[in-house]
Amino acid sequence: MSAAGEARRAELADNLARVRAAIGAGCAEAGRDPGEVTLVAVTKTYPASDVCHLVALGVTDVGENRDQEAAPKAAEAAAAGAAPRWHFVGQLQRNKCASVVGYADAVHSVDSVRLAEALGRAAGQRRDADLDVFVQISLDGDPTRGGAVAPPAYVPGGPVPEPDHDLERVAAAVAAGPRLRLRGVMAVAPLGWQPARAFTLLADIAARLRVGYPTATAISAGMSGDLRDALAHGATHVRIGGALLGNRPPLR
Ligand SMILES: *Cc1c(COP(=O)(O)O)cnc(C)c1O
After folding, report:
1. Is 146 within 8 Å of 190 (Cβ atoms)?
2. 42 alpha carbon to ligand 1 midpoint, in Å?
3. Residues lining ligand 1, judged by CB closer than 6 Å?
4. Cα–Cα dist 20/60, whole Å
5. At what angle do helices 167-176 and 113-126 cross, to 10 degrees?
6. Which of 8, 160, 162, 164 has its CA 20 to 30 A from that of 128?
7. Where does the record place the Alanine racemase N-terminal domain (predicted)?
8. pLDDT per residue over 106-136, tens digit each?
9. Is the pTM of this model over 0.90?
10. Cβ contacts of residue 70 below 8 Å, gap of 6+?
11. How far apart are CA 116 and CA 118, in angstroms?
């Protein structure tokens, strides 16, 4: 490895140790087993060589938010011998489904019936193994920034979702999709909300969804800035970018 490669690997090793320690501390505070939390290293804007370093350091799951960037990066990493599980975490256009099902193991951002159907069609045509699907939830009920909306049966007094973004309908479409497995829910804390409020609501919605869909046990929540709160409220998948790959303020 080049000297620059060695230095980058050492930097990532340091960051990874800090992130793992923060996950350990958050789990300890919440009385949880860190073994039930998957670290998804969000490598968007960082090169395939960083994916290779992270995999060499023991990272098993990597996240990306744009297909145009993720598809070639996954191919380049694979050619270099790094084959992590790839999680697609960004807003997904229906015309990208065919590409994404080619390399992703999980999609965290399914938020409409039409997208679930398109993803199911693509997965049915192109995959032998199930694709894990998280339904992305809009916790403030505004789907314009992405997200399905939980109906009032889930959130008493909450907004009535339009049909295409109704969580119940989206979940049913995923469950019916060939080669799709409804794995759980995902959310980003809305701007201006306390993370604890956001992740409490997400945990309530996840529990309600699990009544009808017992496989939907996962909660994808928590980024570099709100990891602790997410772990306190049951996150099973934390999506960490900046704290792992870049220069970021300390984790909280
Ligand atoms: C970028 C991104 C992350 C990681 O965010 P950081 O603040 O860099 O840790 C997590 N989730 C999604 C959907 C993202 O786009």
Report:
1. no
2. 6
3. 42, 44, 65, 89-90, 188, 223-225, 239-243
4. 13
5. 10
6. 164
7. 36-249
8. 999 999 999 999 999 999 999 999 999 999 9
9. yes
10. 64, 86, 88, 100, 103, 104
11. 6
